[in-house]
Amino acid sequence: MKLATTLFFLVTGSTALISQTSYAEEGSMHRVGHGRDGLTFGLGLGGGDLGCSGDGCDDFTEAGSFNVFIGGMAAADLAVVFDAWWMVHSEDRLDVSQGIMTANVKYWPVNHLWLRGGLGVARAAYKYDGTFIDAEDHTEWVPAFAVGVGVEPIATDTLGLDIKLEYGTGFYSDGDTRIHSLALSLGLSFY
Questions:
Q1: Other C-beta atoms lying within 10 Å of the C-beta of residue 114
Q2: pLDDT surpassing 70 at residue 109
Q3: What Å distances lie between residue 43 and 46, 68, 130, CA to CA?
Q4: Following DSSP, what letter does each residue of 58-126 receive, concatenated?
Q5: What is the pLDDT of residues 13-37, one digit of tens each?
Q6: Domain CATH code at residue 81
Q7: pTM exceeding 0.85
Q8: How many domains does the chain have?
Q9: With bands split at pLDDT 50, 70 and 90, how would you rate the model's confidence at 176?
Q10: What is the residue range of 56's domain?
């Protein structure tokens, strides 16, 4: 939980600093003034925590994160996107992963700051490559959600450099077991 708290304060502090800088430069906290329209797509790479809670769970912790998205700008400050996000934890000969695919709304309340949230599906999997035994399994696709907040230290009409904090989970029917994805990522968005 220390990682999640640290990430929260890092993103919150960066957001406040960028928002104040934007306010000072422009004299007002108006909506995004960029001329973004049409197609948008991008990717992100980072790391974070892939956690498991519930019956028979061990906490996996450290995991790599990768996501890609594609969508369209509905307005200069609003996008509708399809996002595919994977997190993978590898330790010894065991790989544990969760993939989350969601339809999202991404909104810029002020310049350089966006919020996003969406619903979709998730699937968790594991793979063990042992000396004598190999095993792998995965869940069915289940309902899921993902949310995120991001700051754009660089933002133009055609490009955004994102520092983002994202959380997502699936609603698995196996008892009370839940897989949680939490990641801090660096991303590029094209408009």
A1: 25
A2: yes
A3: 10, 4, 33
A4: ---EEEEEEEEEEEEEEETTEEEEEEEEEEEEEETTEEEEEEEEEEEEEEEEETTEEEEEEEEEEEEEE
A5: 444 444 444 444 444 444 455 788 9
A6: 2.40.160.20
A7: no
A8: 1
A9: low
A10: 2-190
